[in-house]
């Protein structure tokens, strides 16, 4: 069924259906910093070293959690319990609304609009010293905070 997410519980999705929800927007691959005092999470405009910005894909998807221990494996069980997931993450939207937005490629049958992806908006972590990360804190839409 083309709009399977409307007719099935998430727990009933096949692996392929589950993966197809991801838009590869890349926002969850941005480096995030946590305030030690209040645990608040801050987004940066820095992207994980394994993210290919041109293709908007993880280059190490199978080994991602080994290579990057902080890389989250989103599953049908945990996806509703990750408060820091980006607001435009399709899994988050599906969890909150039970549907996908009109700009989602499964709905629009078009590529993800650029405005929803990190393409041309991020700096690879390999190009920066960790000491400079704090200077790159932004909000989720890349505005300086
Ligand atoms: S390892 Fe891959 S999926 Fe994980 S944060 Fe890096 S680019 Fe993203
Ligand atoms: S934020 Fe959500 S939709 Fe975007 S790449 Fe990450 S898991 Fe996929």
Question: What does this molecule look like?
Answer:
This protein has 145 residues and is of the alpha+beta class. The protein has one domain (4-138). It has helices spanning 4-7, 15-20, 64-67, 90-97, 105-108; strands at residues 30-34, 41-47, 51-52, 57-58, 123-124, 137-138. The strands form two sheets. Strands 1, 2, 5 and 6 form a four-stranded mixed sheet that branches. Strands 3-4 form a two-stranded antiparallel sheet. The protein is globular, with a radius of gyration of 16 Å. The model has no long low-confidence stretch (mean pLDDT 95). It binds iron/sulfur cluster (2 copies). One iron/sulfur cluster (SF4) binds at residues 29, 48, 50-51, 58, 60, 64, 67-68, 71. The site of one iron/sulfur cluster has 10 residues, from helix 3.
């Amino acid at each position: 069924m083309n709009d399977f997410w409307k007719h099935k519980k998430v727990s009933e999705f096949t692996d392929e259906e589950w993966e197809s929800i991801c838009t590869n927007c890349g926002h969850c691959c941005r480096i995030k910093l946590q305030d030690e005092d209040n645990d608040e999470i801050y987004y940066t405009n820095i992207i994980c070293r394994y993210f290919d910005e041109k293709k908007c894909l993880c280059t190490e998807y199978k080994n991602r959690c080994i290579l990057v221990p902080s890389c989250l494996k989103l599953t049908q069980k945990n996806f509703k319990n990750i408060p820091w997931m980006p607001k435009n993450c399709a899994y988050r939207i599906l969890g909150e609304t039970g549907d996908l937005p009109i700009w989602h490629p499964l709905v629009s049958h078009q590529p993800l609009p650029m405005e929803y992806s990190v393409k041309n908006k991020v700096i690879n972590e390999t190009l920066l010293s960790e000491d400079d990360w704090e200077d790159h804190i932004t909000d989720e839409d890349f505005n300086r905070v």
